[in-house]
Predict the structure.
Amino acid sequence: MPIVSDIAALREARARLPGRVALVPTMGNLHAGHFSLVRAARERADSVAVSIFVNPLQFGPGEDYADYPRTLEDDAAALAEEGVDLVFAPDRRRMYPYGDSATRVTVGEGAEILCGEFRPGHFEGVTTVVAMLLNLVRPDVAVFGEKDYQQLVLIRRMAADLHFPTEIAGAPTVREDDGLAMSSRNQYLSAAERASAPELYAALREAAERLRAGERDYAAIEAAGLARLSAAGFRPDYFTVLSPDLRRPDAAAGEWRVLAAGRLGRARLIDNLAVAAA
Ligand code: PAF
């Protein structure tokens, strides 16, 4: 399995990949959630490429860019085990030779709400790097986790708006036995925080049950979710009921996405659930 870090070597290795090519973009520190993306990619393509790049553009001042766990050797060994065909692990200088003055890709709608409100510029950083990766690897399909649902929606919009031929696929969230969505940031949790963390998923499930039971007072459902997170020790950023395309649902809606984010100690956790009327 070639591991390449420079752009010319990537283009060469990419040209040698046979058949339909899938890309799984990651920031490394891989866990079972990422491996499920690799398997979802394998189901959709003949060759699977994985990128590993901790993208500085998507971290705000004071966020965990410097501390973000970098575990390239272990990641590469695990990806070789998974039968991945190519790993692209560039450094910051190769991806952004012009530094902070790099061209940015901004999605016109939806990047300022939810996580975008609490992490200004975050999604511009994500859509910029993903556009670069799609352009470099030219995959037939790229796979992203539904845990980062807003990211998935915005990447779909970006790829459609810029006429990338790549299909953008979502893959289901992988959870621990107690429901906590897998995330590299879970390792920031103390033992006590880890014990409270599944409340995020539990609160989303409670909201889903209320919607399925016919309740349409979205504000009341959101207030209950926020209260449940606060009671569990979170400092919630948001708890929101939206349409699947992240707009305000009306009372006649039959499909929703419930999304929540909050800080628990040092970790900022996010999660979401798809809900359909019973
Ligand atoms: O979801 C992630 O790990 C990142 O946001 C991504 C899509 C790899 C872009 O840096």
About this structure: The first helix runs from residue 7 to 15. The chain has a mean pLDDT of 97.
